[in-house]
Write a structure and sequence with these properties.
Helices cover 35% and strands 33% of the residues. It has 295 residues and is an alpha+beta fold. The protein folds into 2 domains: 132 residues, Aminopeptidase (3-Layer(aba) Sandwich), CATH 3.40.630; 138 residues, Aminopeptidase, CATH 3.40.630.30. Helix 3 links the parallel strand 4 and strand 5. The two termini are 24 Å apart.
Length: 295
């Protein structure tokens, strides 16, 4: 049967939510943003445009284009019908694409992008929090995890800048520092940013970069260079998940670099199991979707 695609409106929100829940492991960013802002095309955090593909009125694929320029597909079907609408109707520059690896690669090929600032396929991991394996040092109290506080902001900003350079190839300049400061000022009050301490000294950080449907997505895991190799990354993730589990969270997802074998082993030691492939492509320069060459 033939598919049809169109831009989504607020009246589509119930069906959109149902569709994303059925694909939540690769749709946490979309679910989180939809939960935070609804279907609203605007410039505020979490707002964006949504397009859907339909078969006999049933949603079978979605693509969102958010306030900060990122395109997020969750479209096991219908991507070829949605992509032309994105190219024609996007209301802001495209900065990159994040989502299921095959879908991210398909969109990159469709728009014939020749060069990316970053093009990272990453293993996707999932964990039932009842299966969480807690590191001994955390269980015995040698290490502890707490929520970040406003008093932590300055040094968390410095950590974030290093993290952005290592994971997203962002230079240490005024714009990167502005974004890092803004992000910390947003994340600290949210209760989604965590600090691992040893004898009261912060040694690692982690966060939830998306949360919906009793599921959290791990992001921003960072240990300063001088503290690495001591298991602090896995400990801060485990501690954050223990706190989340107390609040009713049941599941966690994350993605990490193909070449980051140490991180993969650390997550697997906590009980995470590999379940798919994620993709993240970032452009050198933002482009309007309508200016991408199309076949």
């Amino acid at each position: 049967m033939s598919l049809a695609a169109r831009i989504l409106t607020p009246s589509d929100e119930p069906q959109l939510r149902e569709f994303l829940l059925a694909h939540r492991d690769v749709s946490l960013f979309l679910l989180n943003n939809l939960q935070s802002s609804g279907i609203v095309a605007g410039n505020l955090p979490y707002q964006g445009q949504y397009w859907g593909a339909f078969e006999q009125g049933r949603m079978v694929g979605v693509v969102a284009h958010y306030w900060q320029g990122m395109v997020l597909p969750s479209a096991p079907r219908g991507l070829e019908h949605i992509a032309p609408l994105l190219a024609e109707q996007a209301d802001r520059p495209v900065q990159g694409i994040i989502g299921d690896r095959a879908q991210v690669d398909w969109l990159g090929d469709y728009f014939q992008v020749q060069r990316w600032r970053m093009d990272n396929p990453e293993p996707l991991y999932t964990l039932d929090l009842q299966q969480l394996q807690v590191p001994t040092a955390l269980r015995d109290g040698e290490l502890s995890v707490r929520l970040a506080t406003p008093a932590d902001e300055d040094w968390l900003v410095e950590w974030r800048i290093v993290y952005a350079g290592e994971t997203m190839a962002e230079p240490d300049n005024a714009e990167t520092r502005r974004r890092a400061r803004a992000l910390m000022q947003q994340e600290i009050p949210s209760g989604h940013l965590f600090v691992l301490c040893r004898s009261g000294e912060p040694v690692a950080m982690s966060g939830f970069n998306a949360q919906a449907a009793q599921t959290v997505q791990i992001g921003g895991v960072f240990t300063p260079q001088e503290q690495r190799g001591r298991g602090y990354g896995r400990a801060v993730v485990a501690g954050s998940l223990l706190l989340a589990r107390e609040q009713g969270v049941q599941r966690s997802v994350l993605f990490t670099g193909h070449d980051n074998i140490a991180a993969q082993r650390a997550y697997e030691s906590l009980g995470y199991q590999r379940s798919g492939e994620f993709g993240m492509k970032l452009l050198d320069e933002p482009l309007f979707a309508e200016r991408f060459p199309t076949p």
